[in-house]
Fold this protein.
Amino acid sequence: MLGAVLAGAGLILCLYVGVLVLADLYLIAVHLRGSRRYPAHEPAGCRQTEGARGREPLVCVQLPIFNEAKLVGAVIDSLCALDWPRDRLEITVLDDSTDETTSIVARKVEEWRLKGFAISHVRRPHRDSFKAGALAAGQHLTKAQYFAIFDADYRPPPSFLRQTMAALLADSGLAFVQARLGYRNRGRNMLTRAQALELDTLFGFEQAARNMAGMPMTFNGTCGVWRRDAIDQAGGWRGDSVAEDQDLSFRAFTLGWRCRLLLDVSAAGELPDNFEALALQRQRWSTGTAQVFRKLPWALLHSMPWPQAMAFAFLTLFYSTAAAVLVAILAIAALCWLLAPGWALVVALGWLATVALLVVLRTVGAALAARRLGRPLNLAFLGDVIAHWLMQLVLLPTGGKALVAGYLARAVPFARTPKKGH
């Protein structure tokens, strides 16, 4: 009897995930329909701000860092190479470091200041609220109405501000503009190729479809430009989660602000090239996602037409629970094996069917993203797909545990992803 009850619970959880992936079918339909209306490579919203030269607004570039000695020098150089008038550009290095990073930053800042750049080195007496606290502290030090935000491993091209600000200035309803994340070490090994495929799918499939369908798409923490009014009206940066980017995005969307993804604008970053670093990064992402979704402002759904609202709710629930639910189904199958082996087979088959559905839909999404980003669909792509799903399988326990921790824990330390500066 107990085995049958457990099996029923396992199959209900399989159905739960199966219903949620209907949102992926919706995204695929949006892509297929939108491909006729939206070019594969859309421009940055309007022509670059050539016509606005001489009338550019003040932009503050924020670089929050913590112990990034191998990375910080190169990123400061790239920020100082941005094509924007020097008297309209401020660069703020928000340094919470406890190692030699601070002395490297001090030398770099002085070097560029002597060349006439408005660059400052900001140190806080404490690391309260982690990255969110640093961004909030930096915001109080400037009158700029626009904030470009970068992590230490990204290198924006000189045209970055010209392209992103063009889109932001053209639409006063945009809270932020998000550029696509690129990667310098994409081909380093199979792990980096698998991550690159996953993130290409996130941008080129999921977030592109959300943008086309008018659904909220969260800020990705780096390579974007925010409008000060949107930050202030949404209540500012908050450190009560380790996913401050998602948190602020959702609060801004609740107030009617929108966002825009620019697939043709990208900055090159660095992917974790070993499993230990990757697991640490994904643990933080999953924990932060659960923290944000735990307090998600569901009033946001009232501002969207019902198809978009349903798809958003499904995607939200799926990404906040899928790993934990899939791990739970496996645990139920293991218990059934001890109590009633016949029921264990039924639950295991349900789990496999659910996972197969996920794999098929997301692989279709990966192919649509590759086509949209101009990447070939060849044997190398197939190898990356296989590596990607193996990576997801290995990460499943880590993600499930981190999601549960995010829902239960009130305070979680911000664990920085170690980078090598490749």
In short: Residues 39-47 have pLDDT under 50 and may be disordered. The two ends are 57 Å apart (CA to CA).
